[in-house]
Specification:
alpha/beta; 2 domains; 6-stranded parallel sheet; Rossmann fold; single chain; 9 helices; globular
Length: 393
């Protein structure tokens, strides 16, 4: 008898249909027996800060160290694709998306992952195989996944990349240097009520509108999992300069210690403040209840680095609670509310009725008139709720 609610050893019967799909015949590619000397090396996007990236396996093979110790976050791993899963392509360090094939030599780096709609992953100890946990080639071990996610792509480790001193290359050693005497530039921080709340779309739309108004906008992403897609959206929207945490040598910020989060945010703000920008648009990944987002938002608030928050919400009902958390717990003033909840006129009208802050859909943020709202908001000595104008196109 099946007892799925509380199975006991020896009495769990497997469903009769379990083996049906195993008998279906499909053509399958075979894993090549060996790597050809001239085989091209695919460098994942998270390795983009490395100063040198060789092109062939014969060149790379000479720079390998055996996996004789446990990997650390941001250690560079050279591996071979042995099973294609969720990620059948990789975002290269050049920014181009490349198809993956069985047997490909892939270079990535170890990192943790926290993505409620995708994978939760860790940097494990030495294993015979690792998972590719993101399209930028963040490596590790998936420990939980959204029901909508397929199995991860599997990587056979070939070795660590040698730094020339017999130690694994760690990307954190190639991060942005500190800059002293940085000018104070206003910061608009984009936070989300959850993952997939529309944070990057919101940040890019604001960047677009201000750029059309003649503002010089610099943009950045302070936390997340390495992927150039988000920062490219900001660049395409008109940001004059864009940086993210990978520029600081971190392929992922999940479970990063407080000092790392402080260093990453400081370096990005320092470098983006150069060149006389009018505003910095900075995004923090995931939702506000995620521990790293919570910690960093509080740190930025305590340091007085944020002038306003543009809050992206996934649904109408989350707007009020998210606003209260950001203002009352984080101590950050909310400039306005946008995000996935403004994708239709119906949900936008509902959001206007419930929100205690101004509501902006993407067309409104993308319009040059948004500059007047931002300028007026930044000029207020005490920024508070203003429901007299609703910024919906």
């Amino acid at each position: 008898m099946n007892n799925f609610g509380n199975p006991q050893p020896g009495d769990l019967e497997l469903p009769r249909w379990l083996g049906m799909n195993q008998s279906i015949q499909r053509p399958e590619a075979e894993l090549p027996e060996k790597i050809q000397p001239l085989a091209a090396v695919k460098w994942g996007g998270v390795t983009q800060i490395l100063p040198e990236r060789v092109e062939s396996w014969s060149e790379l093979q000479r720079r390998l160290l055996p996996i004789s110790c446990d990997p650390r976050p941001n250690d560079v791993l050279v591996g071979r694709v042995v099973d294609l899963g969720r990620h059948s392509s990789v975002e290269l360090s050049s920014g181009r998306r490349a198809q993956l094939y069985l047997g490909d030599v892939l270079v990535g780096a170890f990192g943790n992952r926290y993505a409620t709609n995708q994978y939760e992953g860790i940097v494990p100890g030495r294993l015979e195989h690792y998972h590719m946990m993101s399209q930028g080639a963040v490596m590790g071990q998936v420990v939980s996944a959204s029901y909508s996610m397929g199995d991860p792509t599997v990587i056979e480790p070939l070795g660590f990349l040698d730094n020339g001193a017999g130690e694994p290359v760690n990307l954190a050693n190639y991060g942005l240097p500190r800059i002293d005497q940085v000018p104070r530039v206003p910061v608009m921080l984009v936070l989300g009520s959850s993952m997939d709340a529309g944070k990057t779309t919101t940040a890019a739309a604001l960047t677009r509108g201000l750029s059309l108004a003649g503002w010089r906008v610099h943009a950045g992403k302070l936390t997340g999992t390495g992927c150039a897609n988000d920062i490219n959206k900001m660049r395409d929207a008109g940001a004059q300069r864009v940086l993210d945490f990978t520029s600081c040598g971190y392929v992922s910020t999940a479970s990063a210690p407080a000092e790392a989060l402080e260093q990453i945010s400081s370096r990005i703000i320092e470098h983006l403040s150069q060149g006389s920008p009018d505003l910095l648009v900075l995004e923090i990944a995931d939702g506000i209840v995620q521990s790293d987002t919570d910690r960093l938002a509080r740190m930025l608030s305590a340091a007085g680095r944020v002038d306003g928050v543009l809050l992206a919400v996934h649904d109408v009902l989350s707007a009020r609670t998210a606003t209260e958390i950001v203002e009352q717990e984080f101590g950050l003033p909310v400039f306005g509310v946008s995000g996935a909840a403004t994708r239709s006129p119906l949900s936008t009208s509902e959001l206007i009725r419930l929100s205690t802050r101004m509501v902006y859909d993407v067309p409104a943020l993308s319009h040059p008139g948004i500059a007047l709202d931002v300028e007026g908001y930044l000029s207020q000595p005490q920024r508070c709720c203003d429901r007299s104008r609703i910024g919906v196109a």
